[in-house]
Amino acid sequence: MKKNYDKYKHRFSLMLSFSAFVLMILVITAVAVGVIVFFLINRDTLRVGENALDAWTLFRDMVLISMGIGTVFTFVSLRFPIKTVNKILNAMNRLASGDYSVRLSFKGVLAKHPSVVELTDSFNRMAAELEQTEMMRSDFINNFSHEFKTPIVSILGFARLLKRGNISDEYRNDCLNIIEEESLRLSQMATNVLNLSKVENQTILTDVANFNLTEQLRNCVLMLESKWSKKDIVFSLPEEEYYITANEEMMKQVWINIIDNAIKFSEASGTVEIEIKKEAVAISTAISNYGTEIPEESRKKVFEKFYQSDESHSSEGNGVGLAVVKRIVELHKGTVGVSCKDGKTTFTVSVPA
Questions:
Q1: How many domains is the chain partitioned into structurally?
Q2: Alpha-carbon distance values, 135 to 104, 130, 132, 138, 301 (Å)
Q3: Residue 183: inside a domain, yes or no?
Q4: Which domain holds residue 58?
Q5: For residues 147-186, b (16+ Cβ closer than 10 Å) or e, as one string?
Q6: Among 20, 62, 202, 239, fewest CB within 10 Å belongs to which?
């Protein structure tokens, strides 16, 4: 409340400053005209009170002199605000044309006014966000194209082998298994993108119900059995039954994405730990794995759309899953974070109890 009050106070003071500036021009004009008229009367150039014609002449001359001086003062003084407005418009036009590197900056007394500082900071922050979004969008197109191309090439290659025939039944089954896995991989990528689009446009949480959180986590682990069994990963699951009030289908997406991430970056024959803690106002679920840690500079970005800390594409993913996680948790008025220590990476999701 106080922050909004200060904001409007600063904007009102800026408006008063401009009004005072205009008033000052009018006062200067009036004073200048008065001095000139006084000087002309003393020189007997203007005569006052002799007849109506002289009175009209005096009035006319004062109006003309006032208009002339006022025009000059206005033209000179308005150069400063017009220059500022032109600077803002030019920056906005550059931003609209795709130049996201543009930044606003002012000099002099005007630059120190709180409203001008707010305008500058807001514009520069907007430009920085657009620049970052554009970079991530470009990276996403490159990454997504790469991720889509790999399974498509695999499916095409093994489909051609099957079409030729003359292969053993065992090799045929291997080919069919690979085609199935790559098809599921494509389906998962498409599903993540669709889920992200769906939850981003959602503002109200619906279909909220009370359900068994522990059981849901067990089911999510079973759904990913084909992935963790290949790496011989062991799961440590909570024994106590915890219940939560949330959108069950959405929370399932959260756990699948985080557990899948934990499996992906776990060492072979490693352990994935899942812990649940019930607090006074929230229920926290921590999912941990041992293996490659997320670099410190990447931890703040892993929940951003299209971001991938692994730029080599050596691991599967398209930078969408954790963005879906963050948005779903936000819809539940909760928080999600990541921490790393001694080779252990932990994602913690906390939602209101």
A1: 2
A2: 21, 9, 5, 5, 13
A3: no
A4: 2-130
A5: beeebeebbeebeeeeeeeeeeeeeeeebeeebeebeebb
A6: 239
Residue-level pLDDT at 252: 93
Give the pTM: 0.56
- Please choose, from the candidates 115, 85, 121, the residue with its C-alpha nearest in 3D space to the C-alpha of residue 15: 115
Residue 118, C-beta contacts closer than 8 angstroms, at least 6 positions apart: 7, 10
pLDDT, block means (10 residues), the chain with 353 residues: 54 58 66 67 60 54 64 60 74 86 79 75 87 75 73 88 85 88 82 76 83 94 90 92 92 92 89 92 93 79 68 52 88 92 91 87
Q: Report the SS3 class of residue 198.
A: helix
Residue 302: strand, helix, or coil? coil
Q: Residue 346 and residue 353: Cα distance in Å, rounded?
A: 21
**Neighbouring residues of 1: CB distance < 8 A, sequence distance ≥ 6:** none
Of the chain, the end-to-end C-alpha distance in Å amounts to 28
Helix residue ranges per DSSP H, 224-270: 225-228, 248-264
**How many other CB atoms are there within 10 angstroms of residue 218's CB atom?**
16
The bridge status of strand 234-236 relative to strand 271-278 is: parallel
Same domain, yes or no: 118 and 243: no
For residue 327, the Cα-to-chain-centroid distance in whole angstroms is 12
The Cα–Cα gap between 243 and 234 comes to 24
Helix ranges restricted to H, the chain: 2-42, 52-77, 79-96, 114-164, 169-200, 213-223, 225-228, 248-264, 296-299, 321-331
Q: Amino acid identity of 261?
A: N
Instruction: Indicate if 215 and 109 belong to the same structural domain.
Output: no
- We report the CATH number of the domain holding residue 348 as 3.30.565.10
Residue 181 lies in a domain: no
Beta bridge partners of 249: none
Strand partners, 276: 285
